[in-house]
């Protein structure tokens, strides 16, 4: 169970000890190892909340999102969505769960059929879930297009006729068509110009209030995650090393990896001096992660115990948990 509970309500989603390993095979097809992309990750998300998952590329945050969505099956662990075990759902129950949990990708272009008009792409989601007749579906698509800032005539346009920011709004509209409760946003603004990023982030916030949505917001960009998240989990090499309310994490980072990440974020106030922490070495391979604390090969505070024992995630305050032998 996550040490840092979303709050006293029953969470919308609970992820417990989630593992996703990918087997590595040799030329004879024999399994020679496992890439430990996600290793024992636990967290919770409440209805209407944004949980930011942050870390460098390759730390396992996108794999976590895809495994929660069941685009990938977990190696082990639990996902409890509204009291139901996500990983044992089949048939109709799985189909219905897919309506509640939607995903927005970094590159919406690759997930939009280039031969279909935007209106038809949005309508398809309703057809899959057998919602409405033809007339009702068209009305719902038009409403949604207007809601995300498009004109009626754009119903008939093709994906290539839109800019990157507009395509991301289409991706969001498609996710919203079935009234989801949780949207997993996987680097949704990383490919956009900074000016367009803020438009998409503002839209995400507006529709969150309107639809009472929860987000699992995955990003490597700490400024973006800070802007949108209520709580944040920091991932390193497949593990969640720190979790806190957003303001608490930025004001008082505890894990040496979080401190290093935050030290690299530019501070808008020139009067505030922040010491830049440069980490030594490269991120180790998830095929052969270090023993004990996975961060010990790069940590400036590592001691003997760090090489031997995996630190357990502990609550430091009611809103702040960290996995480090220093605490
Ligand atoms: Fe550094 Fe040890 Fe803490 Fe890991 S457990 S972050 S190596 S001090």
TrEMBL record:
The keyword Nucleotide-binding applies. InterPro entries: AAA+_ATPase (IPR003593), ABC_transp_ATP-bind (IPR050319), ABC_transporter-like_ATP-bd (IPR003439), ABC_transporter-like_CS (IPR017871), Oligopep_ABC_C (IPR013563), P-loop_NTPase (IPR027417). CDD domains: ABC_NikE_OppD_transporters (cd03257). Pfam families: ABC_tran, oligo_HPY. It comes from the Bacteria. Keywords: ATP-binding, Nucleotide-binding, Transport. The keyword Transport applies. Residues 13-262 form the ABC transporter domain. One of its GO terms (molecular function) is ATP binding. Belongs to the ABC transporter superfamily. This is ABC transporter ATP-binding protein.
């Amino acid at each position: 169970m996550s040490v840092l509970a979303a709050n006293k309500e029953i969470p919308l989603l609970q992820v417990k000890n989630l593992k996703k390993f990918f087997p590595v095979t040799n030329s004879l097809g024999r399994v020679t190892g496992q890439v430990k992309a996600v290793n024992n990750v636990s967290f919770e998300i409440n209805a209407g909340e944004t949980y930011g998952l942050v870390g460098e590329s390759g730390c396992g945050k996108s794999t976590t999102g895809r495994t929660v969505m069941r685009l990938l099956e977990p190696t082990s662990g639990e996902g409890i969505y509204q009291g139901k075990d996500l990983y044992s759902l089949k048939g109709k129950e799985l189909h219905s769960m897919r309506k509640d949990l939607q995903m927005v990708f970094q590159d919406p272009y690759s997930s939009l059929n280039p031969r279909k008009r935007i209106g038809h792409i949005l309508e398809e989601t309703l057809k899959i879930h057998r919602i409405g007749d033809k007339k009702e579906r068209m009305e719902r698509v038009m409403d949604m297009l207007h809601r995300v800032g498009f004109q009626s005539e754009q119903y008939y346009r093709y994906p290539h006729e839109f800019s990157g920011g507009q395509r991301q709004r289409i991706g969001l509209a498609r996710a919203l068509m079935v009234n989801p409760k949780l949207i997993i946003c996987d680097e949704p603004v990383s490919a956009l110009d900074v000016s367009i990023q803020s438009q998409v982030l503002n839209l995400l916030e507006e529709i969150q209030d309107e639809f009472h949505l929860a987000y699992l917001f995955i990003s490597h960009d700490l400024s973006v995650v800070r802007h949108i998240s209520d709580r944040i989990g920091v991932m390193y090499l497949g593990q969640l090393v720190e979790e806190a309310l957003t303001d608490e994490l930025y004001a008082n980072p505890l894990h040496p990896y979080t401190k290093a990440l935050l030290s690299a974020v530019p501070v808008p106030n020139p009067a505030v001096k922040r010491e830049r922490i440069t980490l030594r070495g490269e991120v180790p391979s998830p095929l052969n992660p270090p023993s004990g604390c996975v961060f010990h090969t790069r940590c400036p505070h590592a001691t003997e115990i760090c090489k031997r024992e995996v630190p357990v995630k502990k609550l430091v305050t009611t809103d702040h948990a960290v996995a480090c032998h220093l605490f």
